[in-house]
Design goal:
about 10% strand; 4-stranded antiparallel sheet; about 300 residues
């Protein structure tokens, strides 16, 4: 089936291009604007989820909770030496006490800087292979050096964030599909309205020997053109909004939000949405017109 997108001028003159026809382009511009924003939201959530996985995969925190400072320092040294000797550990580094004090300051205030305050010693561990067997072996090694050590996986307490990201990705995909269904519905309604308003012209074309396929081609070309032009306008506006939001996110300085960076494939997907929607509108218009011609004419 040949589905041309741009209608020749001779074909367009057969169908008037009044206010009703031009409104189709405006509707498609609005729908494509919302669709591209939803797609960008989903791609951004996907990029943030990947950044989160990359940053947290194979990361452990070992806590030495001992009240006596000397015992705490000795236990932390034993655990650190044991971890650094393990081949499964890429890096093991103690967390600076000043950094811990800065993290506790919002809750403890200036009392957090008291040298007598028993702040746990913490060791940041990065594993070579983040599988469950490696995590279990490294955990046992740390507890063998210090039975009172507490081991926390980053993924365990960040899993709600990861689950939220997955929900947002699914929601964005659902919105794009919903907008595609809405576009097809609008196209079908517009095609049927066009048939009703041009019934006399269509009857005359049939009398001159035109087939249903030729008549359907007139409508599908016009609708495809309006969808493409309106979609490109809506996409351009959406890209401007996305760029503005990207600048605002970069200014926040957040590690997680900073990972929301679109690659070349992401931009191609966003720019390709109006073309895909124009093809969808073309097929939907052709099917709707052919079915209506079979029933009523």
């Amino acid at each position: 089936m040949r589905i041309p997108v741009l209608a020749p001028a001779t074909d367009r003159r057969l169908l008037d291009e009044g206010r009703e026809t031009r409104s189709m382009a405006w509707i498609m511009a609005i729908m494509m604007f919302l669709t591209v924003l939803a797609g960008a939201f989903g791609l951004g959530a996907l990029a943030a989820a990947r950044t989160l996985d990359r940053q947290l995969a194979g990361r452990l925190t070992v806590q030495i909770v001992v009240a006596d400072p000397e015992q705490r320092a000795r236990a932390a040294g034993n655990v650190l030496a044991r971890l650094r000797a393990d081949r499964a550990v890429v890096n093991a580094a103690p967390v600076d006490r000043d950094a811990l004090v800065a993290m506790l300051r919002p809750w403890l205030g200036e009392r957090g800087s008291d040298v007598d305050l028993p702040i746990p010693a913490m060791i940041d561990v990065e594993l070579r292979n983040p599988d469950a067997a490696t995590v279990t072996r490294v955990t046992n090694a740390a507890r063998a050096a210090e039975p009172r050590a507490r081991i926390d996986r980053y993924e365990s307490w960040m899993s709600p964030v990861a689950n939220f990201m997955q929900v947002m990705i699914a929601l964005a995909a659902g919105l794009v599909l919903l907008m595609a269904a809405a576009t097809a519905t609008v196209v079908v309604l517009a095609a049927r309205a066009g048939l009703d308003s041009h019934r006399e012209t269509i009857e005359m074309l049939h009398m001159l020997g035109s087939t249903d396929g030729q008549v359907a081609r007139l409508f599908q070309r016009r609708i495809a053109r309006d969808t493409l032009y309106g979609g490109l306008a809506g996409t351009l506006l959406a890209l401007v909004v996305i760029g503005f939001i990207g600048v605002q996110i970069a200014a926040l300085g957040s590690d997680l939000l900073g990972g929301i960076a679109f690659g070349a494939r992401d931009w191609v997907m966003l720019i390709g949405l109006p073309i895909l929607f124009a093809l969808l509108a073309t097929v939907a218009a052709r099917l709707a017109v052919l079915r209506a011609l079979e029933r009523y004419l």
